[in-house]
């Protein structure tokens, strides 16, 4: 695990803005960013990466949603800030000329709907069926494989399940990021998703996180259907 953990550590430390390292995924072990007084701009798109806060979860399979929004923030040089009303860390970025709000819920996975609902209630212009994209791990896909979908059930994932329940719709666009399956002879699934990736998966993960970030940009630019045609076919 040493090379993978070292890569993650370098990634977190290397974020362009110092506050990114301090706030990171709330998973770098550092204190969250302090709240800002300046109001957030009204986003056109809400992008929620799912994961669990805390250093002990930073490198786990369940936290890949955090990794992807961190990559987007890093590319944009964005500043993470704590938004208590959302119970989340948030960062504003411009993607293809559109104002997007990245969010990392600090509620733990099973209460991810709190953040999505609070944002949609603050900005009535946000339609969860067209203006929300959720990023999360999926055991039914091989490690690093990504799949975009415009709607669907929870597939046994408690994070997207809580968002579906909170927003009362299954028509939520999502990016599923493969984390592999332990198999019949492997550990229980809860232990699997809360365990780190294997060291030999590091190279796949580097490229896959970048590809997932590109896919998010594709959704923002051309919509979920167009991005599906481009990025689902690459896997």
Textual characterization of the structure:
It is a single chain. This protein is α/β, with parallel strands linked by helices and 235 residues long. It has one domain (2-30, 41-234): 3-Layer(aba) Sandwich (Rossmann fold). The protein is 36% helix and 17% strand. It has 8 helices and 7 strands, in the order ααβαβββαββαβααα. A 7-stranded mixed beta sheet has the order 2-3-4-1-5-7-6, sandwiched between helices. Helix 3 packs across helix 7 (202-222), helix 4 (113-122) runs parallel beside helix 5 (158-167) and helix 7 (202-222) runs antiparallel to helix 8. The longest helix has 21 residues, at 202-222. The chain is globular, with a radius of gyration of 16 Å. The two termini are 25 Å apart.
List the keywords:
seven-stranded mixed beta sheet, 235 residues, alpha/beta, 17% strand, Rossmann fold
Basic shape: globular
CATH architecture: 3-Layer(aba) Sandwich
At the fourth CATH level, what is the homologous superfamily? Peptidyl-tRNA hydrolase
The proportion of residues forming helix, as a percent range, comes to: 25-40%
Query: Unreliable runs, pLDDT <50, ≥5 residues?
Result: 11-32
Mean pLDDT: 85
Order of helix and strand elements from N to C terminus: HHEHEEEHEEHEHHH
Q: Give the spatial strand order of the biggest sheet.
A: 2-3-4-1-5-7-6
Distance between the termini: 25 Å
């Amino acid at each position: 695990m040493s090379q993978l953990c070292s890569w993650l550590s370098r990634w977190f430390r290397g974020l362009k803005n110092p506050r990114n390292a301090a706030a990171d995924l709330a998973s770098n072990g550092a204190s969250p960013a302090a709240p800002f007084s300046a109001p957030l701009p009204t986003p056109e798109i809400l992008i929620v990466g799912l994961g669990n806060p805390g250093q002990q979860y930073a490198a786990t399979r369940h936290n890949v949603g955090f990794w992807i929004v961190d990559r987007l923030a890093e590319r944009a040089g964005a500043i993470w800030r704590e938004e208590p009303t959302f119970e989340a860390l948030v960062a504003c970025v411009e993607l293809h000329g559109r104002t997007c709000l990245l969010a990392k819920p600090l509620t733990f996975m099973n209460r991810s709907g709190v953040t999505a609902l609070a944002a949609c209630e603050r900005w009535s212009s946000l339609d969860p069926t067209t203006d929300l994209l959720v990023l999360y791990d999926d055991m039914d896909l091989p490690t690093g494989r990504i799949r975009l979908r415009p709607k669907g059930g929870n597939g046994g994932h408690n994070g997207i399940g809580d968002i579906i329940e909170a927003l009362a719709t299954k028509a939520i666009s999502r990016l599923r990021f493969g984390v592999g399956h332990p198999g019949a002879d492997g550990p229980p699934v809860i232990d699997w998703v809360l365990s780190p990736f294997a060291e030999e998966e590091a190279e796949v993960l580097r490229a896959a996180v970048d590809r997932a970030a590109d896919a998010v940009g594709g959704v923002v630019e051309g919509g979920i259907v167009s991005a599906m045609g481009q990025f689902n076919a690459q896997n």
